[in-house]
């Protein structure tokens, strides 16, 4: 992640940072290894006696978390999985989205790729959440925990799971 710069004070439009901070620097208090701000544009600089630069910044995005999971199901179980997902997880996604706890989510059957296997149906599960707290809240939801073992029983192997802070997005 590179060198971390401390935020010494903040308000909605100004941050006080060390003089070496440049545009594009990741700033903020760490929360589960996630930065809260990225300096997108330096509008003005002011030096003080303490050798600190005050930068006014604009368009400071919050970091989000992207989760990508490849789920594998036995071909004969794919229809059962889709029905179970539609009945039990999709309503949870909608509830979490309505409360701002999910930014975007999708379940996509894989149609092409370089790792397909005969007799196995792969799915791409993509979820973007505001941060780890929302991710953990979903994963510990009683309804999701009830769904999970039934879905896992249909899978011939462990899913491939990746998550990280979103770097670029359009």
Question: Could you describe the 3D structure shown?
Answer:
- This protein has 170 residues and is α+β, with helices and mostly antiparallel strands.
- It has two domains: 9-57, no CATH class; 65-165, 2-Layer Sandwich (Alpha-Beta Plaits).
- The chain is built from three helices and ten strands.
- It has helices at residues 78-98, 132-139, 142-152, and strands at residues 9-10, 14-17, 26-27, 37-38, 42-47, 53-57, 65-74, 104-109, 120-129, 160-165.
- A four-stranded antiparallel β-sheet has the order 1-2-6-5, with no helix packed on it. Strands 8-9-7-10 form a four-stranded antiparallel β-sheet.
- A hairpin with a 3-residue loop joins strand 1 (9-10) and strand 2.
- The chain is globular, with a radius of gyration of 21 Å.
- The protein starts with 8 loop residues before the first strand and ends in a 5-residue tail after the last strand.
- The model is unreliable at 1-19 and 23-60 (pLDDT under 50).
In short:
The chain has 170 residues and is of the alpha+beta class. The chain contains 3 helices and 10 strands.
Number of helices: 3
Q: How much beta, percentage-wise?
A: 25-35%
pLDDT below 50 for ≥5 consecutive residues: which ranges?
A: 1-19, 23-60
**Total individual domains:** 2
Q: Would you give the CATH topology of the largest domain?
A: Alpha-Beta Plaits
CATH-derived architecture of the largest domain: 2-Layer Sandwich
If you average the pLDDT, what whole number results? 76
């Amino acid at each position: 992640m590179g060198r971390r710069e401390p935020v010494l004070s903040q308000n909605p439009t100004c941050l006080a940072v060390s003089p070496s901070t440049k545009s594009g620097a990741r700033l903020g208090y760490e929360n589960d290894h996630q930065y809260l701000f990225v300096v997108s544009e330096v509008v003005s600089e002011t030096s003080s006696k303490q050798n600190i630069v005050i930068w006014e910044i604009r368009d400071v995005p919050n970091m989000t978390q992207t989760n990508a999971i490849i789920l594998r199901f036995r071909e004969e179980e794919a229809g059962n999985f889709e029905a179970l997902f539609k009945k039990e997880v999709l309503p949870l996604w909608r509830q979490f989205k309505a409360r701002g706890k999910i930014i975007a989510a999708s379940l996509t059957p894989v149609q092409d790729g370089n790792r397909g296997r005969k007799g196995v149906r792969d799915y791409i599960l993509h979820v973007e959440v505001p941060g780890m707290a929302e991710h953990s809240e979903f994963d510990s939801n009683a309804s999701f925990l009830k769904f999970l073992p039934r879905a896992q029983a249909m899978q011939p192997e462990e899913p491939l799971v990746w998550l990280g802070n979103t770097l670029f997005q359009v």
